[in-house]
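Holo model, adenosine-5'-triphosphate. Inputs:
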Amino acid sequence: MERKTVTMEKLVALCKARGIIFAGSEIYGGMGNTWDYGPVGVEIKNNVKRAWWKRFVQESDNSYGVDAAILMNSRVWEASGHTTSFSDPKMDCKECKSRHRADTLIEAHSKGKVNPDAMSNAEMEAYIQEHRVNCPVCGKFNWTNIRTFNLMFETSRGVTDESQNKIYLRPETAQGEFVNFLNVQRTTRAKIPFGIAQIGKAFRNEITPGNFIFRTIEFEQMEHQWFCKEGTDEEYYRAFKQRAWQFLLDLGFNKEHLRFKDHDKLAHYAKEACDIQYDFPMGWSELNGIHNRTDYDLSRHQEYSGKSLTYVDPVSGERYIPYVVEYSIGADRLMLAVLSEAYDEETLENGEVRNVMHFHPAIAAYKAAILPLQKNLAPQARELWERLRKLFPVTYDEAGSIGKRYRRQDEIGTPFCLTVDFDSLQDGTVTLRDRDTMQQQRLSPEGVIAYITEKIAF
Ligand code: ATP
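Output:
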């Protein structure tokens, strides 16, 4: 399938104009790389999260959800290794004082041909020297050495200075699942293998945020940790790669826009790791990660907390620390991919260009828009609106020509428009127009309910 004409500028403009995403703190001139979801955007994002939760928790035999605190005991981050090694290699331009990630500079300079993930800091410095990689902001070549920069946001806890303790805004949700491993196991009586999932905010003081909601300093993650026995971990790692891929296809992604990318340099705890990359408007980039984390996480928490996190097999009595296969995806990053994938510009027979978002109906903010053909049909249309909104999110619009109203709904991806016209007064039927095909059919209200219910299933 041919790539659509989507650019980041077009997406940002559409999102702003249609109440999907606004710049954060806009009336104060913004706050770099923070974004606020508007009335349409919050619905879409909630639907994205719901679809994920349904697939990975609700439809699973043995995966359970948690909603852990953002602020955790600082020892958690010592155990996880974040206080010592959650950092990026940064360089400052001595001329214009802009700050950059060394790995990003190399990636951009080599047009993706050199992979800095496999390089040490010294190797990255040498590459930048040898290839005279200039500052992308001022074009000069006058760098500091690489310094590592911890990405965790710090804050402090306590009322008086004396009692202040440094705490962190969590940089990932995963630790909330690990520290609750035994709580979940005990209360659900789950047997290994089983999963713990969480959706929640994470914060990273990213050196180079950007590309709209792709990389921000505050974002939401959807993470699923699968606890299994050593020896079965590789099989589950493969299974989760498949499940993560299938989830994206079911959301409507074209598989030509997705690819797996194995990690060249594994984190110290990882046995195998890969990303699924998406062909975003700015190019191929990570959409989600799948990691075989071995028994690192639970072993470290056992060591640092002094509490046993050993699992006892109820049948064999065997005792062991489970392995973890992690599947992690950013809700906002998935939202950007969903928006990019849905975006389309169609030239109609009359030469007009129609902007349309082809969201899966389960993801669309409103499942239908109710449009009285003329204002004097409003009472009948409002009656239908009241009936349908008890069942699913629907919107109502009586302003402007019917053509303009269709276009507005196309731009926010409403899959069906229901027009109430003069025939509706006679027999109660309405016209249902399909967003993608623009075909129309007449249906009774009961027919509409059955039709939409079937289409919005995920
Ligand atoms: P990247 O290489 O892009 O910095 P990462 O490998 O550090 O990402 P993980 O720590 O594995 O990412 O986080 C899991 C997922 O969380 C990522 O695949 C991405 O979807 C999302 N994510 C990570 N950092 C951000 C961010 N700053 N803004 C938005 N989403 C993010």
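The mean pLDDT is 94. Residues 218 and 309 are 31 Å apart (CA to CA).
Archived with the compound record.
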